[in-house]
Each structure stands twice: as structure tokens, then as C-alpha cells.
């Protein structure tokens, strides 16, 4: 009796241990499903045009043009910033500020002319390539009397040889040409 009672408790505990019970499957159908038969063809639907597929290439082309233009603007800005922060540009600017002949033509307080589209930074044209041995710069310079354009060109003929300055001059807006003393560079 005690053995059969413990088996009965064991079965109930196992049965109660499950969280859900699966429903039993429905009994098989006793009658066949209802099938409706038609004597004529079905009523045809009215003909209508298929919708036009939206063309995606104009949007892709526009985004590509905007992307390439944005990359070009960023590349131009980044290379200009690199030229401005180079030691060559700083030395050329320092030498131009110290030149007496240039101060007589352009006035005191010589500084690079800022551009509005570069967020107040000057635009430096040309290339600075120290590893290959050539520097070619031009930028606008402004003073208290007027403005002008600085042209600086320097090359290194061989590795290990100092740079040779080929051109260091300022052409003022009134046409005056000032050759800057390049011995201080």
C-alpha cells in the first residue's frame, strides 16, 4: 500500500512539473470538404497598366556628384592647411615680414590675406615636396599700404645638398616688383 501511494505521488509530481500541456490533435473529418463547381469561366478583371518602376540612377548620380565634390573640397582644404603649417611657409613669411624693401611698398603689419571660403585662412598655391627636393609657393600678402603676391621657388639638386633659391619675389597690386633678400632664408 505504501509503495503504490508513493508511485501515485511520483506520477502527479511529474505531471505537475510541466508548465504547459499540448492540445490534442482534432479527430479526422468524417465528411468531405464542401466543393463548389462553376459552369462558366470566371468574370475577367479589367485591364490596367503595370506601375512604372522608379528610376534610381538620377539619385545615385546626384549623390555621387555631391560625394566627389565634397571629397574635392575636403582634399583642397586639407592640403592647404598642410602647406600653411609647414616650416617652409612659416620661414618664407618670416623673411618677407623682415624685408625692408617689402615694408616700404606694402607697409607695416604684413600678414597673409585671409579667404572667406577657407574660414579666414590664406590660400597657398603650389607644392611643397621636401623629400623630392622642390618647393614652389605663391600666396597673397597684405600690408597697411597695399597687397601683393609672394612667389617662392627653391630646388635641391642632389640629396644632402642645401636648397638653392631660384625665385623669391613679391609683385604688388600696383605692379611694383620687390625681390626679397634670400640670404636670410
UniProtKB/TrEMBL annotation:
<dbReference type="GO" id="GO:0005743">
    <property type="term" value="C:mitochondrial inner membrane"/>
</dbReference>
<feature type="region of interest" description="Disordered">
    <location>
        <begin position="20"/>
        <end position="41"/>
    </location>
</feature>
<keyword id="KW-1133">Transmembrane helix</keyword>
<protein>
    <submittedName>
        <fullName>Cytochrome oxidase complex assembly protein 1-domain-containing protein</fullName>
    </submittedName>
</protein>
<keyword id="KW-0472">Membrane</keyword>
<dbReference type="Pfam" id="PF08695">
    <property type="entry name" value="Coa1"/>
</dbReference>
<feature type="compositionally biased region" description="Pro residues">
    <location>
        <begin position="23"/>
        <end position="32"/>
    </location>
</feature>
<dbReference type="GO" id="GO:0033617">
    <property type="term" value="P:mitochondrial respiratory chain complex IV assembly"/>
</dbReference>
<dbReference type="InterPro" id="IPR042432">
    <property type="entry name" value="Coa1_fungi"/>
</dbReference>
<keyword id="KW-0812">Transmembrane</keyword>
<feature type="transmembrane region" description="Helical">
    <location>
        <begin position="57"/>
        <end position="78"/>
    </location>
</feature>
<dbReference type="InterPro" id="IPR014807">
    <property type="entry name" value="Coa1"/>
</dbReference>
Amino acid at each position: 500500500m505504501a509503495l503504490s501511494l508513493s508511485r501515485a505521488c511520483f506520477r502527479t509530481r511529474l505531471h505537475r512539473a510541466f508548465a504547459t500541456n499540448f492540445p490534442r490533435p482534432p479527430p479526422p473529418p468524417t465528411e468531405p470538404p464542401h466543393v463548389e463547381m462553376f459552369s462558366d469561366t470566371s468574370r475577367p478583371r479589367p485591364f490596367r497598366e503595370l506601375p512604372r518602376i522608379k528610376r534610381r540612377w538620377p539619385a545615385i548620380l546626384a549623390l555621387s556628384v555631391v560625394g566627389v565634390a565634397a571629397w574635392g573640397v575636403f582634399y583642397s582644404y586639407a592640403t592647404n592647411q598642410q602647406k600653411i603649417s609647414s616650416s617652409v611657409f612659416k620661414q618664407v613669411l618670416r623673411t618677407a615680414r623682415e624685408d625692408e624693401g617689402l615694408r616700404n611698398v606694402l607697409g607695416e603689419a604684413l600678414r597673409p590675406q585671409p579667404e572667406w571660403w577657407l574660414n579666414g585662412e590664406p590660400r597657398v598655391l603650389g607644392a611643397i615636396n621636401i623629400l623630392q627636393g622642390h618647393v614652389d609657393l605663391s600666396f597673397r600678402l597684405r600690408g597697411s599700404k597695399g597687397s601683393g603676391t609672394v612667389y617662392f621657388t627653391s630646388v635641391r639638386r642632389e640629396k644632402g645638398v642645401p636648397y638653392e633659391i631660384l625665385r623669391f619675389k613679391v609683385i604688388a597690386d600696383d605692379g611694383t616688383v620687390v625681390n626679397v633678400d634670400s640670404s636670410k632664408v
